Amino acid sequence: MILRRALRRVWFAIFLAASATLAFGSFYLDHVMPFDLDRPPNFLTKYHLQLLKREPLRCMAALERARIDFQPVLPEQRENGCGYEDGVRLLKSEIDYGGRILLRCPAMLALLSWERHVLAPKAKEYFGRKLDATGQLGTYVCRSIGGRSGRRLSQHAYANAIDIAGFTLEGGERISVLRDWDDAGAKGRFLRDARDGACHYFGATLSPDYNAAHANHLHLDMGLIRICR
Ligand SMILES: [Zn+2]
To answer: pLDDT at position 90, please?
Structure first.
């Protein structure tokens, strides 16, 4: 009986210590060390981006500090659950996305961090050139996972995901997920490094290694499920 009571106290103390650490960590990340798009990723980056889902003003401030050309978008909530509250439309970045893409603010920060700290340096490293464009297949689409009825809503339905089919280098040369994923040369290595680098920012990063549904694109999303494959 006494032992059980002592154990309960120990568990309670552990719970209190963990909660205090978490609360302090959140406060520290959000208020003392605001998200900086120029900062290379560390072990807290993913957690910080998830925290920003509850801090739209701080998230928008991070985009503004980074001098990103973007436009906040009015919230949308549909009856079937699709929608977003903190949507932003990207007007311009270093890479052309073939249109003004719409994402929730933390997903946009993740995308731009990936562009800055993974795509740009890897393009320089493997090809000695700049990346001109990204071939994206869509961001916000009100649909279920895999587009099949009966399944839960995809992260695309919350403007929390983007699909990337490939890239175009300065000069026009293309790198395609479908064609070059298994390439043993620079194109294949670039694509696999791009996938691995996305895992520092996004919750789920799915590539052709995950399943056949992703043979032609990388799916990057800011959901809570962690997958990097
Ligand atoms: Zn997708």
So the answer is: 97
For residue 178, the model assigns a pLDDT of 98
Looking only at the bridges linking them, the beta strands covering 204-206 and 227-228 are: parallel
DSSP at 206: E
State the amino acid at position 132 in one-letter form.
D
Å from CA of 113 to ligand 1 middle = 19
Q: What is the distance in A from the centroid of ligand 1 to the CA of 146?
A: 8
Instruction: Give me 141's structure tokens.
Output: 């689409």
Alpha carbon of 163 to ligand 1 centroid (Å)? 5
pTM: 0.88
Reported as type and span, the H/E element at residue 167 is strand 161-169
Measured distance CA(52)–CA(34) in Å, rounded: 10
C-alpha 154/C-alpha 143 separation (Å) is 6
Q: List the strands of the sheet with 102-104, edge to edge.
A: 69-72, 87-92, 102-104
| Mean pLDDT in order along the chain per 10 residues (229 residues) | 75 70 65 89 93 94 94 94 96 92 98 97 98 96 85 94 98 98 98 98 97 96 95
Q: Would you call 153 helix, strand, or coil by DSSP?
A: strand
Ligand 1 centre and the CA of 161: distance in Å? 6
What pLDDT is stored for residue 205 in this prediction?
98
- Residue 104 pLDDT: 98
User: Residue holding tokens 């695309």?
Assistant: 156
Distance 19 CA to ligand 1 centre (A): 34
